[in-house]
Amino acid sequence: MATDITELSHPARDDLRLTNVLFALSDPERLAIVKQLADGPLEMAQCHLSDPSMPKSTKSHLMKVLREAGVIRNEPLGRGRRLSIRHEDLEARFPGLIGSVLNASADV
Amino acid sequence: MATDITELSHPARDDLRLTNVLFALSDPERLAIVKQLADGPLEMAQCHLSDPSMPKSTKSHLMKVLREAGVIRNEPLGRGRRLSIRHEDLEARFPGLIGSVLNASADV
DNA sequence: CTGATGGTTCGAATAATTTCGAACTATTCT
DNA sequence: AGAATAGTTCGAAATTATTCGAACCATCAG
């Protein structure tokens, strides 16, 4: 057991970069994922893509971009993964940003 | 005079797409441009890039991405161009968004 | 232990962006 | 008119992002 795949790295609050966050949110599929997490954490399996036939590797990659930008948290839970928006960190660094994005994406 | 190059096309307010706006703002150089316009319109020649040696075609392209996303207005003024943030349109479609982005980019 | 479920990671192919120089357009100044 | 200033546009090259399948890893149910 060299590397523990279940523990993924997340950027520290102070390392969050605004442009990275905006980029992560600038993709419709990723934004749709974040919208689903707006009401609270979700298991990854319950988080759906617009095209259900997309391979899981693509879904995993979308999550990776969101995680590496610091938008979401991805932690092991049972045999799956629990996803959540990093509200507190985002709010601390970029006050009001995630809220206005989620609000503006309501009708999309 | 077939085409009038001085009149560039701008998306209508209702055609603004959140993901396009976020994408346009997700580049450090473009975000820096928008920051310079936060205090009011500026002539393009007075709008500086981080690297002053960048060719003008690159600068023009950065402006194009911002304009086509609906973030900035680009209108002819004298022999140059007047750039401004489309505050009202952005605020109407995505309330609070541009404000929180500008606020969060203060320390960048 | 075995199989099924739920994900991550890697590498390669494809697609999209960025960057730059060159050519071109419009406006102003002399 | 001619030259200088200020930009746009086009096309090619370089860089990045996305997509997908295959291989792999971990947990749970039997």
In words, what does this structure look like?
The structure is a homodimer of 108-residue chains. Chain A has 108 residues and is of the alpha+beta class. Helices cover 43% and strands 13% of the residues of chain A. Chain A contains five helices and three strands, in the order ααβαββαα. Chain A has a three-stranded antiparallel sheet with strand order 1-3-2, with helices on one face. In chain A, a hairpin with a 2-residue loop joins strand 2 (72-77) and strand 3. In chain A, helix 1 packs antiparallel against helix 3 (56-69). The longest helix of chain A is centred in the middle third of the chain and has 14 residues, at 56-69. Chain A starts with 17 loop residues before the first helix and ends with a helix. At the A-B interface, helix 1 and helix 5 of A face helix 1 and helix 5 of B. Chain A binds a DNA duplex (30 and 30 nucleotides) through residues 1, 4-6, 8, 27, 43-45, 54-65, 76, 78-81.
Average residue-wise pLDDT of chain A: 94
SS summary, helix count of chain A: 5
Gross morphology of chain A is globular
Quaternary structure state of the chains depicted: homodimer
Largest sheet of chain A: 3 strands, antiparallel
Secondary-structure element series of chain A: HHEHEEHH
Termini gap of chain A: 44 Å
Radius of gyration from the alpha-carbon trace of chain A, in angstroms: 14 Å
Low-confidence stretches of chain A: none
Largest interface comes to: A-B, 22 and 22 residues
Main β-sheet, spatial strand arrangement of chain A: 1-3-2
How big a fraction of the residues of chain A is strand?
5-15%
Helix coverage percent of residues of chain A? Answer: 40-55%
Helix/strand/pairing category of chain A: alpha+beta
Number of strands of chain A: 3
